[in-house]
Amino acid sequence: MPQTTETNRKIILASRPKGAPDDTTLRLETEAVPLPGKGEMLLRTVWLSLDPYMRGRMNDAKSYATPVEIGGVMTAQVVAEVIESDVAGFSKGDYVLAPSGWQDWFVSDGTQVLNLGPEPQNPSWALGILGMPGYTAYAGLLKIGEPKPGETVVVAAASGPVGATVGQIAKIKGCHVVGIAGGAEKCTHVVETLGFDACIDHRAEDFADQLAAACPDGIDVYFENVGGKVLYAVLPLLNPFARMPVCGMVAWYNLPGLPDGPDHGPQILSTILRMKVKMQGFIIFDSFPAELYQEFARDMTGWLAEGKVRYKEQVVEGLEAAPQALYDLLEGRNFGKVLVRVG
Amino acid sequence: MPQTTETNRKIILASRPKGAPDDTTLRLETEAVPLPGKGEMLLRTVWLSLDPYMRGRMNDAKSYATPVEIGGVMTAQVVAEVIESDVAGFSKGDYVLAPSGWQDWFVSDGTQVLNLGPEPQNPSWALGILGMPGYTAYAGLLKIGEPKPGETVVVAAASGPVGATVGQIAKIKGCHVVGIAGGAEKCTHVVETLGFDACIDHRAEDFADQLAAACPDGIDVYFENVGGKVLYAVLPLLNPFARMPVCGMVAWYNLPGLPDGPDHGPQILSTILRMKVKMQGFIIFDSFPAELYQEFARDMTGWLAEGKVRYKEQVVEGLEAAPQALYDLLEGRNFGKVLVRVG
């Protein structure tokens, strides 16, 4: 069923997953296209962004954001086209970045909507390298990681939109950069296209040894995207005063509860203590001053134009394909920034 | 055997403990009193400080300080009397703070020795409230914890020299302060003498519930001294942007290896991520600028004079009693700052 002007397809949270989401977690529903009222505009979704944080919104846990309600439309940022508008500053034909969620149509009064103009060059980039993932990489690495020239920076999920950007910025800043990714194809891309100094396949049996060999001077900054065994292999390599921006833990998002032991709590705390490590979590839209976004947009636009930062997208066709694409993403079966072409 | 002018008693590391130290860990040996040469001075130990960090020096692990060698004298700061001196700035009869270790006599060229003068008012305080433990509390709380008026600060080992000082400084800064200690006597002291708002006995069966009840607005700063079940009870109470100076983990120092599960690693990382928590380890003598020590000495001297900070010592008699006193300290069987009266 394609996008039409009569029907709004929406994907709702049908039940909260315990562990990995499955067929019962999300459900496609349809309804009439909503009508915008006075002071509102109607948006047609073009690109839907899929991101690991969405797994967290399926839970009912205390967190930085309100969970999606059962029966509610799944949260997402999209790039949409303005179809009709009674909102100042938005005209028919403009492209916008909007919190529409997983659906074809969205009525907005302009809250949290960013106008990209009528003919943006790469509209989908607002969901990736020039949007939340790119800004997350930039702010987390530079403001919490504080990398210095010559230091060693390690980042997992290195072919994903955040990890790839972290590593490329760290190279620009003069660091020795080691990525971690799943499989030979991704690792080759990370070294040959993105220019990391090395990339280790976390599926290798001797992964921890390979990581240690790639970091002969230890690790000064570990940008944490994944948790799990990668974290436990990194801890013994951290240098005194190492910094660890904590951005995600995708290896653990699908845990139904605490996993079996041993308990690595003492290892984590002991490393923080002995090595004087700083671990700091952050959420991109409330951990940094608003001015930083302007710096990011200026720097990143420049780096892209100069070819110093490269960016890879993986496009999934059709809204119906979105649930499986998210589940694949949570298992590391994506390659680059995942976007759904909705209409 | 008391202190004499003929014999140097010294306590050496006989073997590295696997788990809790025991009778085979430390050994008393004797030798002739060493003779100072040109440019050296002879120091007689008066007060020996016992501190939890000493357990770490018994291990052969990569850490911030070199381990004690097998057969080497156990590390310690002491307050000593200068018996004879060929070092400029030190005269016979001066009291000094010195890294003599667990022994009666020490020859020094003045390196890392601080002169306290001929008649210091409370010489032992240089090992406690006006020394390393006091400065640790001050710098860790104010520079990493950054408490703001009205915030909730939690500290464990609250009747110990670091915890007691952290809580009293937090009260001075206008915070709601909750201590954690072992047993009713310590808890009463923490509230009635030290002025904390509450103190929870970690031996209580409903400890986690009591802690939650004492922190109705959550926890903004958790000063980490202990690890273990106290840490795991604190994590669910941390507020967004909470800060956690990591100063020690005495509940875990005697672990022979990683304990049985479940693995709390995901709980720790998930809390850091969702709540944007900062956890930061520090070592007092290399994590802060030297000027901070002057600020500390000025503030703390003032607070002591005004009665805003109170300080409790527990004196153990005789060098031979030091090993058991350290083992008791590691099990929380001390009450206040532990000092050994050596001579």
From TrEMBL, chains A, B:
Q: Extract the InterPro entries matched here.
A: ADH-like_C, ADH_N_2, ER, GroES-like_sf, MDR_fam, NAD(P)-bd_dom_sf
Annotated coiled-coil positions are none
GO terms assigned for molecular function: oxidoreductase activity, acting on the CH-CH group of donors, NAD or NADP as acceptor
**Boundaries of each Enoyl reductase (ER) domain copy?**
19-340
Among its keywords, does the record have Zinc? no
Keyword Magnesium on entry = no
**UniProt KW keywords:** Oxidoreductase
Pfam families xrefs: ADH_N_2 (PF16884), ADH_zinc_N (PF00107)
Q: What is this protein called?
A: NADP-dependent oxidoreductase
